[in-house]
What does this fold into?
Amino acid sequence: MKNVVFPDRFKIGLIIFITTNIVIKVTEYKIAEIFEFKLAIFLMFLFSFLIRYLLILIYDYAKIDCLLIENLKEKRDQKYKTIELTSITKRILKFKKIGNWFLLVALVCTDPIVTLLYYRDGHHLWNNTPKKNFMLFFISTVICTITLAGAIYSILGLIKLIL
It folds into this structure.
């Protein structure tokens, strides 16, 4: 596969996406430290949901396919092999080789933004969150929040045990 040089806008978009995911995880960790369990889970979900939804709005407003998901969908729809890949699209293609159901489960469990962008209809439509995809985004955010909360509370429990 030939090396593809991405324009700066792709690099900047990918950096913003990765940074935002890190900020979400760190903030959710802080929420878990500060608040009581049930309230913390709710606040973690709410924070994650709002930030991720805001990112989708910005992604659609900017109309820059910085994650190359729209490009991947276009090539998929046209039955062409894509040569421009990011770490995210490489992961999608790897999961897809295992099977469509595995891809769905893997995306839902790992990132709500990528899940929504990949599964909404069409490519380069910049159509925000269609109603039929909203539930998928919601469920993915819930699963990611629960998974992260489980990891956070496990780590906090281990720290309390050790100290």
The two ends are 51 Å apart (CA to CA).
